[in-house]
Design goal:
The complex is a heterodimer of chains A (238) and B (288).
Chain A (H helix, E strand, L loop, with lengths): L2 H13 L2 H21 L5 H27 L2 H6 L2 H5 L5 H32 L5 H26 L3 H19 L8 H12 L11 H24 L8
Chain B lengths: L22 H16 L7 H27 L9 H4 L1 H21 L3 H5 L5 H34 L7 H26 L5 H28 L3 H8 L3 H13 L14 H26 L1
Helix pairs in contact in B: 1-6, 2-4, 2-6, 4-6, 4-7, 4-8, 6-7, 7-8, 7-10, 7-11, 8-9, 10-11
The chains are: A mainly alpha (238), B mainly alpha (288).
Chain lengths: 238, 288
């Protein structure tokens, strides 16, 4: 953890247009929750649908993509990462610091709005709000680590991340039950299911698989990203 | 006074004396160059992977469908629902490729170089828009045409679905215009490619999730008419609703859409809004 690197990364993340998306998406989530309450759909069933398809299924991967790749990919793209890499800071420390920044952004912009949105619809009924907020927090951390790794590995990090989130988690996960085991979204739902006692909601992946998988994926992604950054080659793409 | 020794050698530089093609040719060249770039032609091998992978995914259901027609002698996939079924792939293609068209020129501030030629801002925007529209149209039209050719060759019992094919081709063009104008407008607001990809895909995911959530909730509280309106938030369902209104095809969602000219009017309004945003963005970029 290097506070100077963290400080610079925070400034890069919060001072550019990136902040617009980081703020707009959670606001949209809260707005949709408010609208749902207005049209009279303030049942537990509605809250679970909103959380599953919207908060965990849409907003969370998007924010993870923006935060996770945003902390490092733009620097690699325009080559300014050189200035950082030429300092006597170990590369794994750089990736870890950037990961901490991304994870903290996920907590603020993903987990907290998830809680607010669920709270707006059903208050604290059967722990739906707590469950999904906790799920969003842990899954947000995992997304941050995975997408950070993508940002180091490929120039097309955002595209590859979108393909993972949309095609693998969305399309393939929808038809092939086995694919759901390897989807961060489903792990988030397992955690949410563990906390909430809602009858409208049943996670597909057992919690005994989801939590270890989440930890392993996060740690492994960070280690690999640190290793990759040690041998980063800056070649032009276009 | 020293003797003059300086001379200018003729090292063979020549002026261009061929025909000067005007503004139209320049815009056309830019459009063709952009269209090639969308599919990664003339770029590195790595930038060909994603577009061609997505083209392959688009063709996959068509190939399976033709195989089913040939082996089981029954039609497998309808033409009108193809765009809605493949919406995720189309959205990924749009998100991945539209920043390529607009971001580098904005980022390296080379727009004044284009504008120092006969090309105007409108030509530039038009060329980029045409390139993206043609690319998206090809992405939809090629699989549809292959499927139609397959259907004709297999020669199923009963008449071929020519009407459905024509309807889906017209709507493929409408979808291409709509998606290209939205995609380019969103992508042009940031000079960074990654952020451009994220904002285009965020738009798609957000609209599709909003329409799905509101559709489900409004149906469950018994407000079916409002639920059908909620569907139109998703651009692909908007196109499908126009297709239903124009050609009377089967709605792909199984529920139907609001009747009347409203879907078509919304479609035109959205395209106009996106184009206005895009042109205003480039007016500003050209003057800075």
């Amino acid at each position: 953890m290097n506070t100077v690197v963290a400080d610079i990364t925070y400034r890069a993340m919060l001072g550019r247009k990136r902040i617009l998306l980081l703020v707009l998406l959670p606001l949209a989530l809260i707005g949709v929750a408010g609208l749902l309450r207005l049209i009279g759909g303030s049942s537990e069933d509605t809250a679970v649908t909103l959380m599953k398809t919207f908060a965990i299924g849409t907003i969370l991967p998007l924010l993870g993509l923006i935060a996770g790749t945003g902390v490092i990919a733009p620097e690699i793209e325009d080559g300014t990462i050189m200035h950082l890499l030429s300092k006597p800071i170990s590369r794994p420390v750089i990736t870890f610091t950037k990961f901490v920044v991304a994870a903290s952004l996920m907590a603020v912009f993903a987990a907290v709005p998830t809680f607010i949105a669920a709270f707006l619809v059903v208050r604290t009924e059967s722990g739906v709000a707590y469950g999904f907020a906790l799920g969003a927090l842990f899954a947000g951390v995992a997304y941050a680590a995975v997408f950070l790794l993508l940002g180091v590995v490929t120039r097309h990090a955002v595209t590859v991340g979108v393909i993972y989130a949309l095609v693998w988690e969305g399309l393939v996960g929808g038809y092939v039950p086995g694919a759901r085991k390897f989807s961060i979204q489903q792990w988030a739902q397992s955690i949410a299911d563990q906390v909430s006692s809602s009858a409208f909601f049943k996670a597909d992946v057992p919690i005994g698989f989801a939590v270890p998988a989440m930890v392993i994926v996060t740690v492994a992604a960070l280690l690999i990203a640190g290793q990759r950054l040690r041998g980063l080659s800056l070649t032009g793409d276009e | 006074m020293t003797e003059q020794t300086a001379i200018i050698h003729d090292i063979g530089y020549r002026h261009y004396e061929g025909p000067r093609l005007g503004r139209g040719s320049a815009a056309l060249a830019l459009a063709v160059h952009s269209l090639r770039g969308v599919f990664g032609l003339g770029r590195t091998t790595r930038s060909k992977i994603i577009p061609f992978l997505l083209v392959a995914i688009m063709l996959l259901p068509v190939v399976v469908s033709i195989a089913v027609m040939a082996l089981l002698k029954q039609s497998a996939m309808g033409y009108p629902s193809y765009a809605v079924t493949m919406q995720a792939v189309l959205a990924i293609f749009l998100a991945a490729q539209s920043p390529y068209l607009v971001a580098p020129d904005l980022r390296f501030r080379v727009l004044p170089l284009y504008l120092s030629r006969p090309v105007t801002v409108l030509d530039y925007v038009g060329a980029k828009l045409a390139a993206m529209t043609v690319a998206l149209f090809l992405l939809l039209a090629v699989p549809l045409t292959v499927l139609y050719a397959g259907e004709l060759l297999v020669d199923l019992p009963g008449p071929p679905h020519t009407r459905d094919y024509i309807a889906s081709m017209v709507c493929a063009l409408l979808a291409a215009v709509l998606l290209a104008s939205i995609g380019l407008a969103l992508a042009s607001f940031t000079p960074r490619r990654g952020l451009g990809v994220a904002s285009v895909i965020a738009f798609y995911l957000f609209t599709s999730a909003v329409s799905a959530v509101f559709f489900g909730v409004l149906l469950s509280v018994g407000r079916d008419a409002a639920a059908k309106w909620a569907l139109l938030v998703n651009p692909f369902f908007l196109i499908d609703s126009v297709q239903v209104a124009l050609f009377g095809t089967e709605p792909s969602n199984g529920e139907g859409y609001p009747a009347g000219p409203w879907p078509a009017l919304i479609l035109v309004a959205v395209i106009a809004l996106a184009l206005t945003g895009l042109i205003m963005r480039y007016r500003k970029a050209a003057s800075s």
